[in-house]
Design brief:
The structure holds 2 protein chains of 2 kinds. By secondary structure, chain A is α+β, with helices and mostly antiparallel strands. Chain A has one domain. Chain A contains 2 helices and 4 strands. In chain A, α1 packs antiparallel against α2. The radius of gyration of chain B is 19 Å and the shape is elongated. Helices cover 53% and strands 4% of the residues of chain B. Chain B has one domain. The chains are: A alpha+beta, B mainly alpha.
Chain lengths: 140, 137
């Protein structure tokens, strides 16, 4: 039953997209954090997707799932705001905030949730087809 | 004699197998819509079906008594190499070299599921025909 591996393919994609959504949530939650105890502000994280073959046959390119190959930190310097009264201000009176770009993260969030929905719909269709296949040959 | 009853069934079974394989292929494309560098693939269904059913005797042909003719499907789907899959070119170029066109994939997916269901109905109709021929009512 080659259709059964659709669940592996779409399931892996849904899991990868949900991890991406998780990273977006953590970035957005930390959008306004200032430098922590180590003097480093939160750095935005991004996931990288990679194709992963999940078919029952080795090197079967027709069943290509997705996995998150790594989570990387954005190394651009964080936003610096002049606020000498802030408890985390440095010697010059500047506070370093995280380098999260909220607009970028919102775009990422919408893209991830749409891809997630797409994969769920693929699984639903495959499930319906498989159920109908199970009834093959039965009169009625 | 019996193979006359089941030859059509055999053809439809292979078509169903190919349909399910194409469904999986499109699901892979949709799953990898955000993977950098992924190249979407598709199959030429008519060509694949011709390759898979080329060894089937025509329904009107005489039965051949030589061994290996019946069910000797060398063009079976499982043995098909992935070499005859084609690569899709991007309708709109992407910065990460991903060539999945979601509109096209969704359309192909819907198209393929309807045709899969159609093939299922053909099989069901065929089974009913054979059954009524056997029961003779």
């Amino acid at each position: 039953m080659s259709m059964l591996s659709i669940f592996n393919v779409s399931g892996s994609a849904a899991s990868a997209q949900s991890q991406r959504l998780n990273v977006v949530a953590s970035n957005l939650a930390n959008a306004d954090t200032v430098a922590g105890p180590d003097g480093q502000a939160y750095k935005a994280r991004q996931v990288t997707f990679q194709t992963q073959l999940v078919g029952e046959l080795a090197n079967d390119a027709t069943a290509a799932g997705v996995r998150v190959s790594n989570v990387s930190e954005d190394q651009t310097p964080g936003r610096r705001v002049h606020d000498p009264k802030h408890p985390s201000a440095d010697a010059d009176g500047y506070v370093t905030y995280s380098n999260v770009n909220a607009v970028e993260e919102m775009v990422n969030m919408i893209s991830a949730s749409r891809s997630y929905q797409n994969n769920i719909e693929v699984m639903n269709t495959a499930k319906n087809l498989l159920l109908k296949t199970l009834q093959m040959g039965q009169s009625g | 004699m019996l193979n006359r009853l089941t030859d059509t069934l055999d053809f439809q079974a292979r078509a169903l197998d190919l349909r399910s394989e194409r469904q999986r292929l499109i699901a892979s494309n949709i799953a990898n819509a955000d993977t950098p560098g992924y190249v979407a693939r598709d199959m030429n269904f008519a060509q694949a079906l011709r390759a898979a059913t080329g060894s089937l005797p025509a329904a009107s042909a005489l039965a051949v008594s030589s061994a290996g003719h019946i069910g000797g499907g060398s063009g079976g789907v499982a043995s098909r190499s992935t070499a005859d899959l084609t690569y899709a070119t991007a309708a709109q170029t992407n910065l990460d070299r991903n060539t999945v066109d979601m509109d096209r994939e969704r359309a192909s997916f819907a198209d393929n599921s309807v045709k899969y269901e159609a093939t299922l109905r053909f099989i069901n109709g065929n089974v009913r025909t054979v059954l009524s021929a056997i029961t003779g009512q």
